[in-house]
Amino acid sequence: MTNAQATDKHPGELADVPGWFPALDQMLFTWFLEQQKKAGTKGDLLELGVYMGKSAILLGHHLQDGELFTVCDLFEGDAPDEANKAESSKSYASLTQQAFERNYLSFHDTLPTVITGPSSLVSEKVAADTCRFIHIDASHLYEHVHGDIGAARDILLPEGVVVLDDFRSEHTPGVSVAAWEAVLNRGLRPICLSTQKLYATWGDPEPLQEELLAMLQQRSDCGVSVQEAAGHRLIRARSRGMKPPSFPPSRHYVEPVPAPAPTVAESRAARPARPAPSRIRRLAKDLLPPVITRAVRRARAKRS
C-alpha cells in the first residue's frame, strides 16, 4: 500500500470529492450504519469499487472500535479479461490509487486495507461471516457482479446489509440481471430500492423495513411507496430535493476568519477622493455674482 501524496488539491468537504453518490443514498447509508450501531451490531465494512473514494469516506466515518474496513479496486492494475479492461479504460481512466488515498486521508487519519486488483480477490483476503455492511460498485459485467454477490453472501454476517449499485441503469444490464437473479434464485431479500441502489440482506428484512418506513414517512424531502413482487415487499424511496446529511469537513479545512472592522482612519482612506472642480466651474465661481453662486450650490445640494 502506498501513502497518498498531496500533489493535488485536497477536498474541503465530501461534495468536493468526484463521484456518483446522490444525497438519497448518502442518507440511506448513514441510516443503515447508525441503525446497526444502535442495535449493537459489530462487524467489518467492505466496498468493492471505490472510484475517487466518496462513498468510502462516508463508510469510514461509521467504523467502530475494533472493526476493519477493506476496499478493493483495480486502480491502475490490469483487468482480469478484455471486457473488464475495455470498461475500465472507458469509464475510469483517471482513477489512480494515489487519488483515492489522497481524498480518503483528507477526512481520516488512516487508510482502510486496500486490495489492488479484481474483486475476485476479496474472497481470499476477507474472512467469511465478518462484515455487517458491503457496498458492491465494481464491474458492471454480469459474470463479475454474479461473483461479487456470491462473495458477499459468504462474507456478510447473517443480518448484514449488502448494497448493489447501478441495479437499474440502462447502461448496466448485467448488474440488473445479476441482482434480480440473486433475489429470485439465491436467497437475497430486498430491503429497499433507491433510484440508483438496491439494499438487501440474506437475513430477515422486515424489522429494518418497518423502521425504515417509519423514518421515510416522516420526511417531506423523500417520496416513498411499497410494492409486492414475487413474494418480496419492495420499499421504493426517491428524493424530493433532498440535501445530503451533515458530514465532518476535511481535516485540511480551515474555518475562514472574518475580516476585522475597518478603523475610522481606514474608512476615511477608503473613501473616493472628491473630484477637483472643472475649469468651467472655477470660472463660473469667479465671474458670477455671489447670490447666483449660492443658489447654484443650494440646487446642487438638493439633487445630491
Written account of the structure:
With 304 residues, the chain is an alpha/beta fold. The chain is 38% helix and 18% strand. It contains eleven helices and nine strands. Helix 6 (142-155) crosses helix 7. The longest helix is centred in the first third of the chain and has 16 residues, at 23-38. The model is unreliable at 1-7 and 87-93 (pLDDT under 50).
Parts with pLDDT < 50 across at least 5 consecutive residues = 1-7, 87-93
SS-based class: alpha/beta
| Coarse morphology | elongated
Radius of gyration, in angstroms, nearest whole number = 30 Å
**First-to-last CA distance:** 71 Å
How many DSSP helices? 11
**Order of strands across the biggest sheet?**
3-2-1-4-5-7-6-9-8
Helix content: 25-40%
Mean pLDDT: 85
What can be said about the biggest beta sheet? 9 strands, mixed
> Beta-strand percentage?
15-25%
Instruction: Please report the total strand number as a whole number.
Output: 9
- The topology string of helices and strands comes to HEHEHHEHEHEHEEHEEHHH
Summarize the structure.
It is built from eleven helices and nine strands.
Keywords:
304 residues, alpha/beta, 11 helices, 38% helix, disordered N terminus
